[in-house]
Amino acid sequence: MTRTIYFVGAGATAHRHAEALEHLPRGDRPEIAAADPNGETLESFSDVVPDARLYDSSEAMLEEPVHPDDFVIVCAPPFVHHSETLAALESGRHVLCEKPLAVTQPEAVDMVETAKANDRLLGACTCRHYGTPGTRHVTELIADGAIGDPYHVTWVHRSQRGRPGIEYQPASKWFLDRSKSGGGIVMDWGPYDFAALYDLLSPDVVAVRDAWTAQPETGVDPTDLTFDVETHGGASLVYRTGTDEVNVTYERASGTHGEERWVAEIEGTRGSIRWDWTDVDEAEVTLSSDDDGTVTEESTTVSGTEPFGPHQRPLVFFDRRIRGEDAPILTNEDALFTFSTIQAIYDCAASGEPQEVRPHALE
Ligand SMILES: NC(=O)c1ccc[n+]([C@@H]2O[C@H](COP(=O)([O-])OP(=O)(O)OC[C@H]3O[C@@H](n4cnc5c(N)ncnc54)[C@H](O)[C@@H]3O)[C@@H](O)[C@H]2O)c1
């Protein structure tokens, strides 16, 4: 019996995952099956993977006999991640779930506990920009003492008109409805942001001291459907590791009247580093320090070693983990920790109360 990789949802993201299949080890090509209630979408998926077995529901698909190394990629909108992940785990298969993991904290906890109870792995697609060559180089520089004691991170990424469901992928209106997406741009890009910050700072605890969300208006805001998500959000956080504390100034915008900015910078007592944390091919890392009272800067280009891009990483890396190999992908409790950080930002913004995120203890 050959193992199968199952796709729940055959839309835009499923197509990108499918491009990763050619990067699996030669001689071990899995079979492919896909389920989507939308017939046209299924048809276009079979243009990309012609030999895929197609289903109009995941329920029927998961009745197929199970191979121990099967896994399911849940790449449907967030409001079905919880139910689809549970069904897949309970069918005896590992699950690679799209970001965000779920739309609420209880759902995310339930998913990780179900993975544990079924002795299966739950992987997060946040690895598109996790463990990137740039961030790994920065952690090495910090460990070598290049910036002294780190005390502050600026993590500010602002686009003026890049709102999912409006300017970006306008056909996918679920992005605009909180009950379907879980939230706006913080829920959409936060999974990558907080996975990268987790990689950079290895926290034991994350405190959210203050947070806010906003929805700046434009002349093309939809009025005939639910549009209740933020397009701009921010927070002040503290990452604690042992007795060390690093403050994080966080901001994310897909729609703002302010200027566009893209800054990832960590400051320490003897220097600072700015870097491109998203690129997996070639990332520029700039170390700034002091030379007899004068600021000096040194830039390095760090190259990746994998022959594929960010959208192919989740499938290839999860496949390696299923085989027992090492790969930079967050699974189970680690995936939950980054999701919980995002939830804590929303909770703090809604209540005005500071929040704390600690690792979830599983039974
Ligand atoms: N669009 C992007 O750039 C992008 C990038 C990375 C990750 N993602 C994530 O991927 C997921 C899917 O996003 P997308 O952009 O592919 O959306 P999409 O709207 O292009 O496709 C989603 C598909 O899921 C199908 N679907 C809905 N409910 C289903 C169910 N119960 N079972 C099976 N199929 C179902 C829909 O019919 C649709 O074809 C989201 O979690 C999103 O955050 C999107």
Automatic annotation (TrEMBL):
Domain of life: Archaea
InterPro entries: Gfo/Idh/MocA-like_OxRdtase_N, Gfo/Idh/MocA_oxidrdct_glycsds, GFO_IDH_MocA-like_dom, NAD(P)-bd_dom_sf
One Pfam family recorded for the sequence: GFO_IDH_MocA
Comp. bias intervals (Low complexity): 296-306
Residue ranges occupied by any GFO/IDH/MocA-like oxidoreductase domain in the UniProt entry: 136-274
Molecular functions per Gene Ontology: nucleotide binding
Span of domain Gfo/Idh/MocA-like oxidoreductase N-terminal: 5-122
Gene3D superfamilies (alphabetical): Dihydrodipicolinate Reductase, domain 2, NAD(P)-binding Rossmann-like Domain
Region (Disordered): 287-310
Protein name: Gfo/Idh/MocA family oxidoreductase
Organism per entry: Natronosalvus hydrolyticus
